[in-house]
């Protein structure tokens, strides 16, 4: 007597899990259908193997820090805060980013700027804050450089015609000056007889 044994074949759905938003995508897709994250290097998994061979890189492990200071998931291609392209920014271990955070505040509180960590920014009429200071003729197009490094801030004057002041003292063009919370920066002007110059810019460093 011939016995026929039927084998039960189970087809398990395969997919790619987006490391940014967690969306399940068709395994042939190269971009997430939900957030547009690049899936080229993401492994194809199923329900059984998802938690075994696929371990998404989470925000608690790695982050991308945009120039605006916002923290983003490691696979993000656009900043969640300012929508700028951050595809060329390398992810940084979040543990290494737990440093002091600072913000620049216009002296009257008219505007603020979050200083990104471990980055270099240029202040000037054609650089950072240009939308606020483009009409300040005492400020150069590329006036001063601020370096954020391991929780410390340093400022260097870049202008050959206009000066930079910290707490009303002119700083060097060659040697970076350490900044502290509540320090006042004068771009193109100092305080004379308790008066600030209208065509200069005055900023205060605040710790967040």
Largest beta sheet: strand ordering: 8-7-18-15-12-13
The chain-level structural class is: mainly beta
Predict the CATH topology of the domain at 102-207.
Tumour Suppressor Smad4
Order of helices and strands: EEEHEEEEEEHEEEEEEEEE
Q: Round the Cα radius of gyration to an integer and report it.
A: 25 Å
Distance between the termini: 83 Å
- 3D shape: elongated
Number of helical regions: 2
How much β-strand is present in the residues? Answer: 25-35%
Largest pleated sheet: 6 strands, antiparallel
User: Segments where pLDDT lies below 50 for 5+ residues?
Assistant: 1-12, 53-60
Q: In the CATH classification, which architecture of the domain at 102-207 applies?
A: Sandwich
Number of strands: 18
Which range best describes the helical content: under 10%, 10-25%, 25-40%, 40-55%, 55-70% or over 70%?
Answer: under 10%
CATH class of the domain at 102-207: Mainly Beta
Mean pLDDT: 83
Structure description:
There is one protein chain. With 208 residues, this protein is mainly beta. The protein contains 2 helices and 18 strands. It has helices spanning 50-53, 130-133; strands at residues 15-17, 24-25, 44-45, 62-65, 71-72, 92-93, 102-106, 112-115, 120-123, 144-149, 152-157, 164-166, 169-170, 177-179, 184-187, 191-192, 195-196, 201-207. Strands 8-7-18-15-12-13 form a 6-stranded antiparallel β-sheet, with no helix packed on it.
TL;DR?
This protein has a six-stranded antiparallel sheet, with no helix packed on it. The chain has a four-stranded antiparallel sheet with strand order 9-10-11-14, with no helix packed on it. A three-stranded antiparallel sheet has the order 2-1-3, with no helix packed on it.
